[in-house]
Design goal:
Helices cover 38% and strands 20% of the residues. The protein contains 15 helices and 23 strands. The strands form seven sheets. A seven-stranded mixed sheet has the order 14-17-18-13-12-20-21, sandwiched between helices. Strands 9-8-7-10-11 form a five-stranded parallel sheet, sandwiched between helices.
Length: 495
Amino acid sequence: MSTIDWAARAADLRLDGRSLIDGKRVDAVDGQSFAKHSPIDNRLLGPVARGQAADIDAAVRAARAAFEDRRWAGKAPAVRKRILQRFADKILAARDELALLETLDMGKPIQYSLSVDVPSTARCIAWYAEAVDKIYDEIAPTPDSALALITREAMGVIGAIVPWNYPMIMAAWKLGPALAAGNSVVLKPSEKSPYTALRLAELAIEAGIPPGVFNVVPGFGHEAGEALALHMEVDAIGFTGSTRVGRRMLDYAGRSNLKRVYNELGGKSAFVVFDDFKDLGRAARTVAGSMFFNQGESCNAPSRVLVHDSVADEFVRLVAAEAPKYAPGDPLNPATELGALVDETQMKTVLGYIEAGHAEGGRCVAGGQRARAETGGYYVEPTVFDGIRNDMKIAREEIFGPVMSVIRFKDEAEALQLANNSAYGLQASVWSDNLNRAHRVARGLRAGTVHVNQYDEDDITVPFGGYKQSGNGRDKSLHAFDKYTELKTTWIRID
């Protein structure tokens, strides 16, 4: 456990919220800024540049110039690899600083900012650095009279728009493959969590990424985000966020230059427990740990827990007993497991869903209240509802908070029907000691990732993304290069 006095470090911080464009920190073109407060206790962190269309245009022009003069794309893959490896090393060297910024920005416990967010960010950058000079192009099997080369080329200027729940990790999932492939990037972080993105850009420049290649413009989605998605010089948008805004991204592409849009959107993941799985305690511990991790602010949180009738009472008892172990605490305390929700708006949204659960007839067996109100921060108890139907609001809509719904089923067919009866298809899990059943149900689940007898195990080597309204394209793994590169066929006639 860390011995650092994180509260003292936080008190000494002096934060720079200006944009980083073409290698320089700059104020917004019109001089506007907004005040950023921490969800921990509503303390003022400082002013942040309120980027708008003019700021986005400056960043895109810088990125375009950097791409066209090939200051980055023209470097040999082995050179880009070395620079990106240095970038990853600098992220690890700045571990304490970045973790503190992440915790202050969006309220997650410092222990997880240190042990998950920073190392995962560095590993993502390092992994794509290693991959970039190990991907080969192709020669097609043409007749002897022709040579057909199939080459993968950088796309150009990538707009990356990332959410506030995992600000560094989500940024790295875009930056890693986009930069490794030779693109230039304009990153728009959420206005709720801008600081680590700005610091990452500084570290990238220190590592040797040329000015203009990686730019960061903070601001609001309806201003900076919309301007980026509409910009005619942006070749692709990598977006992670809500399904509602994902629809807008597709609209913006149609209204501008038909840029490619890759959406990683919401989820309402099903966690399916059959009566033949004997270790219900492990399943209960797993679903509680996964659901309440990051305050439930995870798109892949297992918020719909489907349990066979015959074991549901025991399972609910076990899960309800787990919930108090995740009582909200001070995110700057290294022992805290569950921190603050990102802001007051999100807290009220979560509490509104809890009210809806009561109103629709759900039975709250754990939590259900605001916590730590005296701190001025935004905390909600880990909450478990039993007696939920799949047509209830809290079973249909993404809550993005620590609220779990238990739904009962009678047999395998009903379990699959309930699990797939959702607009989303990001992740799912099946728990069974019957190998045939586990395979059948895993194949039947309409989700981008299906876990068997575990949940949320993860690695940069496997793709992440969803079916249906959970988005398109895949982050992570070598498949992510498909989003940020073009395939070119070159025919050569041989006489």
